[in-house]
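User:
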Amino acid sequence: MSEYRISEIASALGLLKAEIVVGVDPVVKGVRADSRLVESGDIYVCMPSASRDTHQFLPEVARAGAVAAVVHSQSALKYAQGLGLAAIWVEPRGSRFNFVVGHLCRLIFGDPSLKMRVIGVTGTNGKTTTAWLMRQALANLGRKAAYLGTLGYLDDDGLREGANTTPFPVELWGVLADAAESGVTDLILEASSHALQERRLAGVSFDAGVFLNLTQDHLDFHGSMENYAAAKKLLFTEWAAFSEKPYVGVINCEDDRGLEWLRELPCRSLSFGATVDADVLVAAQSVGVDRIELGVRLGDESEDVTVSLGGGFNVQNSSASVATLVGLGYSLSEIGVAMSSVKPAPGRFEPVLSETGISVIVDYAHTPDALEQLLGTVRDLGEGRVICVFGCGGDRDRSKRPKMAVAASGLADFVFVTSDNPRTEDPEKIVADILVGMSGEFSVELDRLAAIFAAVKMAQRGDVVVIAGKGHEDYQIIGRKKEWFDDRVVAAEALAGR
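Assistant: Predicted structure:
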């Protein structure tokens, strides 16, 4: 970490005099947002929170040796000063707080994003799988690559869980610093629309941004599809312009929004897809349960690429990975070898094996488009019945619930509607929203365990049970508590009972 005086930090961040109270102008040696981790010389960031006032921890961090604080109310300036802390006040309007904190971290951590290649992946569906595949492919190319996203942080030492798809600034920059220190050469991270709009990634220099698709999700947060799209687009405008490294935007030209952006993006761009005018032409030659064969063309060069994961929706994820590797300078022959041994991400089209003759697939699909693609793929792979178990999360976009029902009803032979992280909402009201779009044969079972057992009991040899919505998650959020629940384990128990 680098050491700066508060006055130097204020000057570097362009802060106004009214936004800073300096006593003895202390030297800042580190930055923390968790009061329990504060050490001597740290600046403590009071992150705005809907559940508590983080200014309450200022006495604790002062006793622990903190020399300064970032606060989010003007009154907290005097409070911090009374505790002997220099303080910076950042008003928490819009994304400004995260923006300032991100650049503060960049300064203190010495900008580790300049010490490795950083690739951001955004899109409604497929971020996790695409980033997971790319991390493996780059490792196969001899790089020390790491992944950061929904599943946590993965490097050569294993997987560590995280709280958010894209962490908040202090945690994010801590991960970047640790990655750089451990010799990571490439970090592939999921850039969620929330994180982009809230500027959690402020200050990060990217080498590449990847756009997969845009379908309905998170309208409870963004308000409209236009706002949602605008948040995603920031990765290819604001972050592309900021990056201190050569930047390439890798864009799916089969998505209408991606095609639109390709005509106007200010950054260098590389399109991919199965259309003849794509820069990287990728077409599926065959798609199976656990294998996809792709034909890839780049100018006059062509290569057959085989990946060990199945499902039609993974064609796009694999294609994006291939195109990004092209954008990073690898040849098609190198890419073919690198992609040949990649494996799917946990909870993404993950089979639960048994000797019953009944197939069970667990998948994270939790948007209308993702569920439709998932069930369509399963429908194309066999002749047996498709039995679907799904629900919708509480305290989230209500408008997608009947659309999820339409997708399930249209492609499954029988549907069990159940709970999926109801949070603080009444599960019966969530189901009522879902039922607006339901048709065909279905049953409501609010107990997710009972719904999975009922689906497996109904299935006969040759049928496929699709359990959608939670994927890798090993919990249910009921109220404000996390309770253990793993679709894969429950499904295995149900199959064992057959």
